[in-house]
Amino acid sequence: MTHRYFFLIIGLIIPLETYSQKTFSVNIQVNNTIQKDSLSFFVDDGQRPVTFHSVNNEVRLTGELATEATTLTIRYKQAATILLISDKPASISLYYKDNDLNYAKLSNTLYVFDTIYNKYYREIYRYRLPELHDYLNFWKGKDNDAYRNDSLFNINKQLLKNLCLKALPILKKYPDKYYSFWFFCNQVIMPSLNILIQHTAYVRTLYNFLRNDLDKRFLKTEKGQMIADQLQGILHPAILMHPAPVFAVKDIYGNNIQLNPTGKYLLLNFWASWCGPCIVEMPFYQALQQTFPANKLDIVGVNMDRNMSDCAKIISDKDMNWIQVFDQGRKISNSYGIKALPTTVVVDDKGIIIYRKEGIDTSNLRALLNSKLL
């Protein structure tokens, strides 16, 4: 029997480093329970779609690997299955039964939540079975009530923390396996950061585990470094009345931008195209740009969309003609410990953070800028 368990993951999207010299090749055999044209395929934790070619009852996938291994997500109707693939040619025999995707044979690939053939997940599953039962039993009949009730939410956080921590000793047994790195990123880090971001000791445990207990080659990947930066940003965020981080970046048009040059004020507005309140406050920043000259104030939008193309249309439609930076790898937002959107930060002409606010606070922000710059 195969046990399947998925966390609901919201928020953090992590791009991967590309190794163009490595490619993947997957052959998938399907029977008459599957209509090939209704299949879809994605790699890099569901972020990058893959085109395929089919001949008779065989589907063939090829493409560039994002790192030494990656996930292949196969979707059909309402079902999905997730496998790990590498540069070794893989083959899968797939069929559809009981509203689920199933496989008869696997070669050079691994189903990430399989307790029969995936020895790593089997060991994790068995070791933390009591914590898993506690977590699932807690959610029975609650839907989203646990997020609206503070007492229930605190219980949920503790149960989730117990579940995530219980996986670490098993992952530590296999520090050089890509599966350990994948599981840590996607089944420990991803669900944790959304609701456990205030638990400093817990975040420090995860940070130390990444740096000290997994193979160093994972930390050197863009994904590993990005997670390390995010955890560091939580542990050591830029705070009020302290020096602001300094960044040399490019805006969305390729121009070099210095954040923060001393000598004038800097306003950073962290936003995304999917954030309704972010879009609502854009006319306010247009007005600020017209009020305060460029030699006194730089207004910089720091976009946190998944892809730069997601924000390009909004920037054009809303005439957002102040400086816009796409936060590739979340380096800026991680350093500022951004937890919600929109967030606005003001840095004074000496490089000190003097204002930080989550949500819309236009009246107080304008009053501050008026007092400092007019």
From TrEMBL:
| Name of the protein this chain belongs to | TlpA family protein disulfide reductase
| SUPFAM superfamilies in alphabetical order | Thioredoxin-like (SSF52833)
Q: Which Pfam families match?
A: AhpC-TSA
| Organism for this UniProt entry | Chitinophaga silvisoli
Query: What GO MF annotations does this protein's record show?
Result: antioxidant activity; oxidoreductase activity
InterPro entries registered for this protein in UniProt? AhpC/TSA, Thioredoxin-like_sf, Thioredoxin_domain, Thioredoxin_ResA/DsbE_sf
Q: What Gene3D superfamilies does this protein map onto?
A: Glutaredoxin
Q: Which PROSITE patterns match?
A: THIOREDOXIN_2 (PS51352)
Residue span(s) of domain Thioredoxin: 238-374
